[in-house]
Structures are given as C-alpha cells and as structure tokens.
Amino acid sequence: MGAIEVRGLVREFKKGPRAVDNIDLTVAEGEIYGFLGPNGAGKSTTVLMLTTLLPPTAGTATVAGFDIVKQGPQVRASIGAALQEAALDRFLTGREHIKLQGSLHGMKGADLRQRGNDLLERVGLTDAADRKVGGYSGGMKRRLDLALALLHRPRVLFLDEPTTGLDPQSRSALWDEVARLSREDGVTVFLTTQYLEEADALANRVGIIDHGTIVVEGTPDELKAEVGRSSVEIEPHDAARLADLERALAPFGEPMVTRGTRASIRLNEGVGDVAAIVRALDAQGIVVHQLRLREPTLDDVFLEKTGRSLEGSGDNDEDETPSA
Amino acid sequence: MSDFLHWLTAVQGIAVRQSSSFFKNPALVLPSLLFPMLFFAAFAGGLSDLNRIPGFDYTPGYTTFQYVFVLFQSSMFGGIFIGFAVARDFENGFARRLMIATPRRSAIMCGYGLAALVRSAVTIIFVTIVALVAGINVLGSPGQIVLLYVLALTSNILGSLWALGIAFRFQTLSVTPLMQIPFFILLFLAPVYVPIELLSGWIRHVADVNPVTFLLEGGRALMAGTTGPIVTAWLVVLIGGIVLGIWSLTGLRAAEKR
Ligand SMILES: Nc1ncnc2c1ncn2[C@@H]1O[C@H](COP(=O)(O)OP(=O)(O)O)[C@@H](O)[C@H]1O
Ligand SMILES: [Mg+2]
Fold first, then answer.
1. Hey, are the CB atoms on A54 and B258 less than 8 Å from each other?
2. Would you state the pLDDT for residue A252?
3. I need a surface site. Which of A54, A146, B86, B107 has the fewest CB within 10 A?
4. How far is Cα B75 from Cα B165, in angstroms, rounded to an integer?
C-alpha cells in the first residue's frame, strides 16, 4: 500500500468551482511526488484535504495507511506539513514555535530540546532562534516552517509551494534538504509547485493538475519522452545560407518552424546525432554561428496536454503565453 | 506517551503559547488589569453613599459588595476575550498549525480555555490586592472564600466556552461583539449596584430569573459568611458549563468541517 492513496477525491466549494474534481493518485513510501500545476489548479485544496484540514466532498484517501476522514488523529500524528502560507505567530520566537509544535505532538523535555536544536541548526536558524518571527525574512519563515513540520519525525511530509517567492540560493538549499529527507530518512514527500524545474529536479514522479483534474502522471523522463524528442536549433553565420542549412539538416529529423535566422529540427535519434550534424554542415561549408540543443521540458508536456503553457498560466491569465 | 498525557501536553503547550503572547503584549495586558479597576473605582468609590440608603444591609459594606461584582465581571470577560485571540488565530491562519498538528483537537479548546483561566487569575489577584488596600471586609470562613474564588473562576470558563463557540464557528474578528453583548446584558440586568431586594419593576423580574443574579448573590453571601443562593449558583455554573461546553465543542466540530 502506498504512503498516500487517493481515490476519486472531490472538493466543491459552496460559492465556487469544483476545486478538485475526481482525482486518483498513489504515492509510494519514500517517494517524492511533485504535484505540478498553475495557480488555482487545485493543489492547495488537495493538500488541505490530505492533511485533514478540509473534508472532501466525495472520494476517499489514506495517508500513512489511515483514512483522512475516519482516522484524522492518526493521520495528523503521522504527517508533517508546511502550508502555502506559513502559519506562524509573529510575536513568538522561533524556539517558542518549536516548543508549541512539540507539545502539540506530545513531545517535551530533553528530547524536544535536542530535536529542536538539531532542526534549527539544519535549517540555519540557530542564531535567529530567540528572535521574534515578525522580524524574519520570507526565506527564514519557510525554513522555520519546514523545521516545525519535521519536528516529530513524520513519515509523510506535505509541502505546499515551499519555494514560491524564495531567492535561488534558498530554493536550492531547500531542494537539497527535501532530497536528503527522502533519500536518507525515507520520508515520503508530497510537494506542490508551479515551477517546472522544481518538479523536474526533485520529484521521482510528477502529476500535472489543471482545473482540478490530473491531466497526466509519470516520472519526469517518461512524461518528456511522451511528448517528444530532443531538438536542435542552429543559426548559420551567413543568414543567406539558411535554406542550405535546412536541407543539410533534413536527414536528421523533422524540420520545425523556423524563426527568422535559425533552423530547428526534432532529432530522430536524439542527442547522439549532433556530432554527425556538425560534420555534415562542415562538409557543406556552412559556418555555424550558434547551436542550441533543447531537451523537451515539462512545459512541453503541459502544453501538449492542456493547450496552454504552464509558465505564466493560471487563474488570472488563461491566455496562451506567446512562445517567444 | 499515552493518549491522555499527549493530550495534556498539547493543552499545556497551547496555553503557554497563548499566555506568553498575551503577557508580552502591554497593549493587551494593561486593559485587562485597568478595566476592572475602573469599574471598581467608579462603583465602589462613586456610589459608596449607597451604604446609607435604607434597605442596604450587606454587612461587609458597599465596597465589598462591589468587589464581588467586579470579581465575577472581570473573570467572565477574561474568558470572553480569549475568543478574540482565537478569532485572530483563525483569521491569520495560525489556527491551522494547531488543527493540523493536534491529534485530539479538543486539546485546542481546552488549551485556550486554560490560558483564559490563567489570565483571569492574574486579573483577580491584582483586583483583590487593590480591593484589600481599599478596605474590603472578608467575613466568610476560609472555606467559603475558597468556594467564592472557585465560583468566580468557573464563571470564567463559562465566558470562555461561549466565546470559543463563536470564534470556532465564525473564525473572524468581526463577530467579537457577539461574544460580549449577551454577557454584558446578563451582567447588567443582574443586581449590580444594589441588592436584589432593592430592585423593582421589570428589572426585578428579569433579575429574579437571571442566572448571573445567583452568581453575584451567592458570591456575596460567601464573602459575607451569610446564607444566600449558593447552591443555585453552583447549579448555574454546572448547567451553564454543560450547555456551553456542548456549544463550544460543536463549534470546534464545525470548524473542522469548513
Ligand atoms: N475557501 C474557498 N472557497 C471558495 N473557493 C475556493 C476556496 N479555496 C480555493 N478555492 C478555489 O478553488 C480553486 C483551487 O484553488 P487552490 O487549491 O488554492 O489552487 P492552487 O493551490 O493550485 O493554486 C481556485 O479556483 C480557488 O479560487
Ligand atoms: Mg496553492
């Protein structure tokens, strides 16, 4: 049985849409599951249901083997969660949050102190631990929230957009930490994100959600393989030779729309062809100004499945973003 | 750790957090101490001539008579104000931390309640010191005085349960008047300034059936070491506790379903 099993989960809001519309998913023990989707897709609503904060309208789910509706207390004892908006009290210090969180989980005394100090150290908040949270930066709040979520050594961790709004350093530090948790401690991680790179870099498996339904699911490589192969884009030194270039490339794959001064093809054989292409161009005397190799991204997957680009797509701007 | 010990630890943790937030914030602490003093000074000082009106026969005197009112009033309102804190925690999302991490969520209700009790105890101590300096007369036996304070603190729990029930249901600060107004009405339709025998007309009829009347009259009797509706006062807190306990607990269940 998976660490998270979801069957036909639905959540309707009274004056709103079907925020989550009949989703099924399974997350294996120790896996990092990336729940990828634009703003308003239903990611947070799913997390709120799985963490027993919101009852589902229909469907069932188990987390750590416990039913989210009938066994709320057991679910809560098994999970840690850092929600999209970190729930912190700005008048309390980091350490006071640790004490509170520990007591909610029935921890106290030396065990709690030790564990709290270890985690504060791990998230780099030892020096700030006795300062009020009101003075923390966004990144510090996220890190404290993560430390709090991990305090009682949960088997399943929920992270709702943990890196939204973080600077690149904080983001990669958090990625390292999440990867370590899964690898070394065997923690199952359910992570939502709007960022393709995040899902790609971190998740063992990705589910793409849009308008409350999961449009496609698989490992990042499977998903990318499904939409297509690598492509190469070449700009000749002499723009007049663009037509020659296109002809020279033709044997290696299907030509793609060429913009202005560049020719692109989708490679039949994958990256291995690049050497042969360069030799062929050399033989024709075409001087290459720029050569760009492009792997398919999860955005291509999203585009293929929804007809929209994930980047910049969401509640407010449903329009297709120009593929500039 | 057993389930019960775990539950107790959670109650304690919530109470400690709530209390440390509160006592570190002068903007909250000062009013909670000063308002009861204001009432006490205004009524006991300004109306002390009532001592001499015919029919006022409360042996310990008017200051003591008013002290008992302020005791119950500040205790109840100490409970009601915890509803403000809970509503704020729901508004800014902090309550989610409690809801998601506490296996048995009744600990949330009891933790906030305990914080209210601690806070009212501090207010009561403060008011009592001032009252002793102002010259109240404690005529009841030590046992009666203990009963008086237990009764006052129990009425704090009634205030908490009422306000928690509202905070859990509405989860917004905009409903705080709803927490206070019913208790205000009950308190001021009780014999606040004069003994019930001196009230007449419709206010007497209301006071005769107002549960707060029994608390005040019972409390005053304990203070004076005389007889009064003491048993009725205990019945009031018992029945009130059960009814408001259900109100608060069903409020918590409603909060879980939002
Ligand atoms: N409490 C609520 N009441 C009504 N509608 C809501 C509520 N919460 C979320 N929604 C709606 O449900 C949809 C999904 O929201 P959400 O799960 O927050 O998306 P995401 O986390 O993927 O950005 C959105 O259309 C949002 O407006
Ligand atoms: Mg969200």
1. yes
2. 85
3. A54
4. 18
Write out B142-181 in H/E/C secondary structure. Answer: HHHHHHHHHHHHHHHHHHHHHHHHHHHHHCCHHHHHHHHH
DSSP string, chain B: --HHHHHHHHHHHHHHHHHHHHHT-HHHHHHHHHHHHHHHIIIIIHTGGGGGSTT---TT-HHHHHHHHHHHHHHHHHHHHHHHHHHHHHHTTHHHHHHHH-SSTHHHHHHHHHHHHHHHHHHHHHHHHHHHHHT----S-HHHHHHHHHHHHHHHHHHHHHHHHHHHHH-SGGGHHHHHHHHHHHHHTS-SSS-GGG--THHHHHHHH-HHHHHHHHHHHHHHTS--SHHHHHHHHHHHHHHHHHHHHHHHHHHHH-
For B103-144, the pLDDT digits (tens) are 999 999 999 999 999 999 999 999 999 999 988 999 999 999
The average pLDDT across B132-160 equals: 95
Contact indicator for B233, B216 with CB cutoff of 8 Å: no
> Which pLDDT score is estimated for A242?
86
Question: Chain centroid to CA A32: how far?
Answer: 9
* B99 chain-A contacts, CB cut-off 8 A: 52-53
Strand order in the sheet with A205-210: A79-82, A156-160, A188-193, A32-36, A205-210, A213-218
Over its C-alpha atoms, chain A yields an Rg (Å, rounded) of: 24
Q: Are strands A156-160 and A79-82 parallel, antiparallel or unpaired?
A: parallel
Low-confidence residues of chain A, pLDDT below 50? 315-324
Q: How many residues belong to chain B?
A: 258
Residue nearest to atom 7 of ligand 1 (CA): A13
Q: What is the pLDDT of residue B1?
A: 67
Instruction: Give the pLDDT of residue A312.
Output: 58
Kindly state the tokens that stand for A186. Answer: 């065997």
Q: Is A39 in the pocket of ligand 1 (CB under 6 A)?
A: yes
The per-residue pLDDT for B52 is 76
DSSP conformational letter for A106:
T
- Report the first-to-last Cα separation within chain A, whole angstroms: 45
Any ligand 1 atom below 6 A from CB of A68: no
**pLDDT 10s digits, B169-189:** 999 999 999 999 999 999 989
Percent of chain B with pLDDT over 90: 76
Ramachandran sector of residue B120 (left: φ over 0; alpha: ψ -120 to 50; beta: rest): alpha
- Quote the pLDDT of residue A311: 67
C-alpha span between A304 and A68 (Å, rounded):
34
- Give how far the C-alpha of residue B1 lies from the chain's centroid of Cα atoms, to the nearest Å: 33
Handedness of CA B85, B89, B94, B95 (dihedral sign): positive
Nearest CA to ligand 1 atom 14: A42
Residue A257: the pLDDT is 61
- For residue B80, pLDDT over 70 is answered with yes
**What are the pLDDT digits (tens) for B240-255?**
999 999 999 999 999 9
Q: What does the block give as tokens for A140?
A: 């510090």
CB A249 within 8 A of CB A291: no
pTM given for the model: 0.87
- Provide the 3-class DSSP secondary structure of residue A125: coil
| Percent of chain B surpassing pLDDT 70 | 100
Instruction: Specify the ligand 1 atom closest to the Cα of A315.
Output: 25
